[in-house]
From TrEMBL:
Protein name: Uncharacterized protein
Keyword Signal belongs to the record: yes
UniProt feature, compositional bias: Basic and acidic residues: 67-76
Segments for region (Disordered): 64-84
Keywords: Signal
Superkingdom, natural source: Bacteria
First and last residue of the signal peptide: 1-20
């Protein structure tokens, strides 16, 4: 069974833009968004900048870590950080103004899936179940309040094995998918996962956990994996995860693109994890096409991470 199941048609059926292609389709820009100093003007400008590119595809706004009382800790901050926390409502407002900016400035009738993203750090004082349900509630609220057809509001989760137990992450996903049918982008890492065959990943995660969190068994979840390393090993890891899913669950992953952090690395130093968007996309496409069980005829655009 090939992973080529007419991805463009499947994405359309799920409300995901049918922009996938066999040749490198370019990239969008996604952002880490520290909400403490964020303003409506900044959000509008960020959306406008993306609209002017004329590129259709997903964009992810990563707001950080969920904590108690519907608050968010800034991206890149540890649990003991003293930085101010921001209310979920501030993330909702940022998304609204981003969407307005994109719509007002877009060229070539570009459209966007704007994914409101958080991570799976389990040190925020809340359960995975509570976090997943509350994020679903927020995304639904923002989606229902949307006033533009150019931007579809959806969700994203950056699930990394090093950041939580597999149980916490699975609970988050179960609660999210129970609370809403809004599609989710899995912008995940594959920490210490094998590049061939079976084996364990980091922090007690198994391949089954990583496969599940990347959309195994759920056609409303599409993965945009982190393909940062210049040596290509992360692409090989993800191809192996998809192949594991094909072999063990008859369910290779549904890839919507590849994620790079080239711009973020220019803003903050990186070591050998600064693939360009095209390098990330090419590495993933090559790794997936190396085996018939994971081969894809269609792969959506890359998205490149940056800080605001």
């Amino acid at each position: 069974m090939l992973a080529t199941t007419a991805l463009a048609a499947a994405l359309t059926a799920l409300g995901v833009p049918a922009h996938a292609t066999t040749a490198y389709p370019g990239h969008t820009t996604s952002r880490y968004v520290p909400l403490t100093d964020a303003t409506s003007t900044h959000a509008h400008q960020a959306g406008c900048t993306e609209g002017r590119t004329g590129a259709t595809g997903p964009r992810i706004l990563f707001f950080g870590t969920q904590e108690k009382n519907d608050t968010l800790r800034e991206p890149g901050r540890a649990g003991n950080s003293t930085t101010p926390r921001s209310a979920y409502t501030k993330a909702a407002a940022y998304a609204h103004h981003w969407a307005q900016g994109f719509t007002e400035c877009r060229t070539d009738q570009a459209t966007a899936h704007l994914a409101l993203g958080v991570n799976n750090k389990d040190d925020g004082g809340i359960t995975g179940t509570h976090a997943g349900q509350r994020w679903a509630d927020l995304v639904t609220t923002v989606k229902d309040a949307s006033t533009t057809d150019a931007v579809t509001i959806t969700a994203a989760l950056d699930a990394e094995p090093s950041w939580s137990t597999p149980t916490w992450a699975r609970d988050w996903l179960a609660a999210y998918t129970k609370a809403t049918t809004t599609p989710l982008y899995a912008a995940n890492s594959a920490d210490s996962c094998p590049t061939t065959g079976s084996g364990d990943c980091a922090n007690g995660w198994r391949l089954a956990d990583v496969h599940h969190m990347a959309g195994g068994g759920n056609h409303r979840i599409h993965v945009i994996p982190q393909i940062y390393r210049t040596d290509g090993i992360q692409a090989t890891q993800w191809a192996n995860i998809s192949r594991w899913g094909h072999t063990n669950a008859n369910d290779p992953l549904r890839f919507a693109g590849a994620m790079s952090q080239h711009t973020a690395c220019q803003q903050r130093s990186c070591t050998n994890t600064d693939n360009t968007p095209q390098q990330s996309w090419d590495q993933l496409k090559k790794a997936l096409d190396a085996h018939t069980a994971t081969r894809v005829n269609d792969l959506g655009p890359a998205t490149d991470m940056r800080w605001p």
